[in-house]
Write a structure and sequence with these properties.
The complex is a heterodimer of chains A (351) and B (277).
Chain A: H1 2-21, E1 29-35, H2 47-53, H3 56-60, E2 67-73, H4 76-85, E3 91-95, H5 96-104, E4 109-118, E5 121-124, E6 140-143, H6 148-159, E7 168-171, H7 174-182, E8 188-191, H8 196-201, E9 205-209, E10 219-226, H9 227-232, H10 234-252, H11 257-264, H12 271-278, H13 283-286, H14 293-308, H15 318-321, H16 325-333
Parallel strand pairs in A: 1-2, 1-3, 6-7, 6-8
Antiparallel strand pairs in A: 3-10, 4-10, 5-8, 5-9
Chain B: H1 6-15, H2 19-50, H3 62-75, H4 77-109, H5 111-126, H6 133-140, H7 144-168, H8 172-181, H9 185-223, H10 228-237, H11 241-273
Helix pairs in contact in B: 3-11, 4-5, 4-7, 4-9, 4-10, 7-9, 9-10, 9-11, 10-11
Classes of the chains: A alpha/beta (351), B mainly alpha (277).
Protein name (chain A): Sulfate ester transporter substrate-binding protein
Signal peptide (chain A): 1-23
Domain SsuA/THI5-like (chain A): 80-253
Chain lengths: 351, 277
């Protein structure tokens, strides 16, 4: 009996060992997570959603047995952290504040590319005289805390010479924010483009748009892989990043703008709202996947924010966390250096 | 008359042969049996986190959770959250239970009122408090009044149902005696109706409070910025599941103690009211 058992163990070790020596090339499935919106089948509103809808990553694996699975989490950042921690995802694309929280709590993620920017809007009650961030002094502002929107509000306040103490922050989820401003429980709300319909309904007027506040006003986030997957499948990881960068390249082409809006509208916002949210932005620049000094500076500000707000208990070593090689390889092999030149920390192009 | 005393008299009869031994055994069973399951869960939790069956972010080790609990206790976070939550329960309960009592009395005593109001009441009662939330947020905003109204509603329904039940089931014999004695309405209410309703009111209070407790946590999780429910949501947002677990344990223990205290009070009141006689 003992002998049988040890033989079995030996056999298992041989099989597993042999398997891991040429495990590369064929992960059976690659699982992607993204923030999702909408009822029924939620869908994403960023680069990864484009890569999914247009099959850019799938094309990289054509002719191989590898299958791709895309999941859009309506539970947003916290839900993605939980899924990563449970080993249910290999790649994920979500906002900086929750992914810094995940990293600080010990998730073994590695940043592969920037997911670009998200436009943050501020909407105020029409009966109040709030025309700029400075007018928020003494007001009650609703946001969902511990999100990139929270970072956006605090940064905007700082840029306008105010601090967090000058306003009362109320932590509410998106749907409750809409109700709260309609019921006049709060004076203003900060959020993504889901706030735009409020203006049409006359419930609020938009007084702030992050993309008009300079290069570093928009929200930011990253496309990450688990370290386990990256180590086991470096080639597959490169292919995934290639597909992701191709999606960004496709977005940069102005003739695809309308189609991109139509794809994002699957998450529930009408095309005209998405168009309005993106008016004045070049999608190529907004969805720049590179991990240059600009990206690093933004993540540093995100980490500092998480520390300051006591959202994390431990620091995050950004240099250890970011792996530029994959996105740099992809940009080089696709010859896209001229589309996305290096940006300085302040967002200025460098040649 | 012994509708409620059945349990107790039953126990006395069984204990008769060897009272001493039975008492010791039943005490041991009463203490050991309820603790078996929590101990088992704790052991499983410990094993799962030490052996890495579940990732430490999702299920932190029990000793980490204990450490976080002590930290939160020291910083006063738990006390502050609990104080907010208990104040809400107290306010919601006072409003909801007293209105529920009056309403229950009305539909229990007057068949006309029951015919008019009863069906509507039962239909509205069927919608859980949380189902009212979206509309109430629009009407009341996200202020304190929203939580109090939800809690008051949660207390109102069980209190009204129990009171109405109690008002309807005043023992027939006693009613007849009262009729013969031609008691005045006032005397009749305080000497007959109210005492016979006491057990119903007591269980109404217990039910309302447990309902209020459940609704409180949910309402704080959905539309709160403070309190125990919010503390749990915030822990999840920060990916610090130890805070969530602490919240669950605190809520569970407090809920259990509350229920136990009320049970004691209830049996005390019943003995005092003579409902068992």
């Amino acid at each position: 009996m003992k002998r049988l058992l040890s033989n079995l163990l030996l056999a298992a070790a041989v099989v597993l060992g042999a398997h891991s020596s040429y495990a590369e090339d064929a992960p059976a499935t690659i699982r992607f997570g993204d923030v999702g919106f909408g009822f029924g089948t939620p869908f994403g509103v960023g680069l990864q959603a484009i890569a999914d809808a247009k099959g850019f990553i799938a094309d990289e694996f054509r002719g191989t047995p590898t299958k791709l699975e895309f999941t859009y989490f309506t539970g947003t950042g916290p839900a993605i952290n939980e899924a990563l921690s449970n080993g249910q995802l290999d790649f994920a694309s979500y906002g900086a504040v929750p992914n810094i929280i995940g990293k600080a709590n010990g998730l073994d993620t590695v940043i592969l590319a920037s997911y670009g920017g998200t436009t943050i809007f501020g909407a105020a009650r029409p009966d109040l005289n709030i025309k700029s961030i400075a007018d928020l002094k003494g007001r009650k502002v609703a946001i969902q805390k511990a999100t990139i929107i929270h970072w956006g509000l605090i940064t905007a306040l700082k840029n306008a010479g105010l601090s967090e103490k000058d306003v009362t922050i109320v932590d509410l989820k998106n749907a409750d924010q809409l109700a709260a401003i309609a019921a006049k429980s709060v004076d203003a709300v900060f959020g993504a483009d889901f706030l735009l319909p409020l203006e049409d309904k006359g419930v609020a007027k938009i007084f702030y748009k992050s993309s008009e506040a300079g290069a570093s006003g928009d929200g930011f986030g990253a496309f990450l892989v688990t370290d386990k997957f990256r180590k086991a499948f470096p080639e597959a990881t490169q292919k995934v990043v290639n597909g992701f960068v191709k999606a960004a390249q496709w977005l940069a082409d102005d003739k695809n703008r309308d189609e991109a809006f139509r794809i994002w509208s699957r998450a529930g916002s009408p095309v005209e709202i998405i168009a309005r949210s993106n008016s004045g932005s070049t999608l190529g620049q907004k969805y720049n996947p590179r991990l240059d000094d600009f990206f690093v500076a933004r993540y540093r500000s995100g980490i500092a924010f998480d520390r300051e707000q006591k959202l994390i208990r431990r620091d995050v070593d950004l240099d250890q966390w970011v792996d530029r090689t994959y996105v740099d390889n992809a940009v080089k092999s696709l010859n896209l250096q001229s589309l996305w030149p290096d940006r300085s920390a302040a967002g200025v192009l460098q040649n | 008359m012994t509708t409620f005393g059945a349990e107790e008299s039953f126990r006395v009869e069984r204990a008769a042969p060897d009272v001493q031994l039975w008492k010791v055994r039943s005490l041991a069973l009463r203490l050991v049996l309820p603790l078996a399951l929590p101990t088992g869960i704790l052991a499983l939790w410990w094993a799962a986190s030490v052996n890495g069956w579940v990732s430490p972010q999702v299920l932190p080790q029990p000793d980490w959770v204990l450490q976080t609990f002590l930290d939160l206790l020291e910083s006063g976070d738990i006390a502050a959250a609990a104080a907010v939550s208990f104040r809400r329960i107290a306010e919601g309960f006072l409003i909801g239970a007293s209105l529920g009592f009056l309403f229950g009395l009305l539909i229990g005593k007057s068949e006309t009122a029951d015919a008019y109001l009863g069906p509507t009441f039962r239909a509205l009662a069927a919608v859980p408090s949380i189902g009212w939330l979206p509309i109430l947020i629009l009407l009341l905003g996200i202020e304190e009044s929203l939580k109090i109204v939800i809690l008051a509603k949660a207390c109102f329904v069980p209190m009204a149902i129990s009171t109405a039940e109690g008002a309807r089931t005043v023992p027939k014999g006693l009613t007849e005696v009262a009729d013969i004695l031609k008691l005045r309405a006032r005397t009749r209410f305080f000497k007959l109706t109210l005492p016979s309703m006491v057990p119903f009111i007591a269980s109404g209070i217990r039910l309302s409070l447990s309902q209020a407790f459940v609704s409180l946590i949910v309402v704080e999780m959905l539309a709160g910025t403070d309190g125990l429910g919010y503390m749990m949501v915030w822990g999840r947002t920060l990916f610090q599941l130890d805070i969530v677990i602490i919240g669950m344990v605190v809520v569970g223990v407090v809920g259990f103690l509350l229920d136990w205290l009320l049970k004691q009070a209830e049996s005390f009141v019943r003995r005092g009211s003579g409902a068992d006689a």
